[in-house]
Predict the structure.
Amino acid sequence: MARDGYFGHESPDGSSFDRRIGRYYPSSGRSFWSVGENIVWSLRLGAVMALRLWLRSPVHRENLFGASWREIGIAAVRVASGAGTYGGARATIITADFGVRR
């Protein structure tokens, strides 16, 4: 997102986040596979603020407390001058991906 200057669950090529996650979290050989994603960005953002923002959103809150998730991946990146959506400003982007496969 930082490199390509976009912010969204859908990638710039139009593919959905579950397709992107599936490249690293494959479903092959599994009878059940599901993923969820929380994303947030701001000029000044830390873990506490990201969590507060997600907790205020019913959809993001549901991901955080989802009883079915068994794995999580979290990433944070800070760019000094983000392209596109970030308008050349400093930005911090935090992503949490949730998954379950059986």
About this structure: Residues 17-101 form a domain with the Dodecin subunit-like fold (CATH 3.30.1660).
